[in-house]
Design brief:
The chain is about 35% helix and about 20% strand. The protein has about 400 residues and is α/β, with parallel strands linked by helices.
């Protein structure tokens, strides 16, 4: 039977029925090792008992009341996120794009607070911030933007990991903020210089700009810290979260500090569903489980083991350009587009992803076992070597 779902994805020919940890089973009961975790969403894997229990308990009490009223779980989650991040307050929404929309609105309000009529935000080439009109305008991909013009104005684009390009922007350019991913995910798992965020913080402090970090993909333990900026000693003015925060239950968050935390007041921003009791209960269960099971620290160790295992197996092989990453966010860059590797991996019971045309992206659940990590390295290495032998 033909699907009546709008074809916004080129979906693979598989339909999953259940999951447990890093495994998924399709409707024919075939098992797959999930090395993409719902695109960096299921950091606790599938059907984690803590999330299951939290969602079931809350659904039996109260799912939604709206933000016209105080929500106990929302206030509890905001307090926990601010404690863990060092930020002052939180706005809750339903997705990463909405969280980034909130950040963009904070920056524009900040610009008007400074008396700037048309404030501008610096964004990066090859970035990805979402698919709403403002966030796709901020995104550094013509492929994402094509066909949706006119785009939203107010963005100045510079190369990623290039502080000098930012310093070269004249002071009279109405810039009020920088919006940047600590590691570019959709852009090809691009890891910047170790001092990149430190230098961006310095520039923002010098010019009275806001530093806004899109941690939708890097946050919630993915890189071996709860938040990727915590690999440094800086604090941003704004941080956006989503994806793994609810382990599959839709929730986004925009955290703010100092003056930025004062920009969104009553009537200036809102979300009907944002931060409802169900989503916040799931997010609280995620945070507690991450620390109780020491999964953030494990992500750093296991991610490095996977990285080194891949380097030992395929580094220097023909067509392998680079193997890079941080924590459980790993990219294997090849010298040619490789979309065929995804369905080939699927046939072998392995779920992977290709981004930026030439980069195999791995985002495994943080609950991956040592044996599963070795299986991932072995299967993927054999797949890559065999693929280029066949295509040679």
């Amino acid at each position: 039977m033909a699907s009546q779902v709008m074809p916004t994805y080129a979906r693979l020919p598989v339909m999953f029925e259940r999951g447990e940890g890093a495994w998924l089973w399709d409707k024919q009961d075939r098992r797959y090792l999930d090395a993409i975790a719902g695109i960096a969403v299921c950091n606790l894997g599938h059907a984690h008992p803590a999330v299951f229990a939290a969602v079931c308990e809350q659904a039996g009490k109260l799912i939604h009341t709206s933000n016209l009223y105080r929500i106990e779980k929302q206030e509890e989650l905001a307090q926990e996120l601010c404690r863990l991040s060092g930020m002052d307050n939180a706005f809750f929404c339903n997705s990463g794009a909405e969280a980034n929309e909130s950040a963009i609105k904070i920056a524009r309000r900040y610009g008007h607070y400074l008396g700037i009529a048309e404030p501008a935000i610096i964004v990066m080439e090859s970035s990805f911030h979402g698919r709403t009109l403002a966030t796709l305008s901020a995104t550094g991909s013509r492929k994402v933007q094509e066909g949706f013009e006119p785009l939203v104005g107010g963005f100045i684009r510079v190369p990623y990991d290039d502080v000098r390009a930012i310093e070269a922007i004249p002071d009279n350019n109405n810039v009020v903020a920088i919006l940047v991913e600590p590691i570019q995910g959709e852009g090809g798992v691009r890891v910047p210089a170790d001092d990149y965020l430190l230098q961006l913080r310095r520039v923002c402090d010098q010019r009275n700009w806001l530093l806004m970090l899109d941690e939708v993909q890097t946050g919630i333990g993915r890189t071996g810290r709860l938040l990727a900026f915590q690999h440094t000693f800086i604090r941003p003015d704004v941080v956006t979260l989503a994806k793994a925060l609810g382990n599959g239950v839709p929730i986004g968050a925009c955290l703010a500090l100092g003056t930025a935390a004062e920009m969104l007041t009553a009537g200036k921003h809102a979300s009907t569903f944002g931060g409802n009791p169900l989503a916040c209960s799931a997010a609280l269960a995620v945070l507690r489980t991450l620390f109780r099971e020491q999964l953030v620290e494990r992500a750093a160790i296991l991610g490095e083991n996977i990285l080194q295992g891949l380097r030992s197996a395929i580094e220097g092989r023909p067509h392998v350009v680079d193997i890079r990453g941080k924590g459980m966010m790993i990219g294997i860059e090849l010298d040619q587009p490789c979309p065929d590797l995804v369905p080939l991996a699927l046939e072998r019971g392995l779920l992977i992803n290709v981004t930026a045309e030439k980069v195999l992206r791995l985002l495994p659940p943080l609950v991956l076992t040592d044996d599963q990590a070795r299986l991932l390295v072995d299967e993927l290495s054999r797949l890559i070597v065999g693929y280029f032998k066949i295509t040679a």
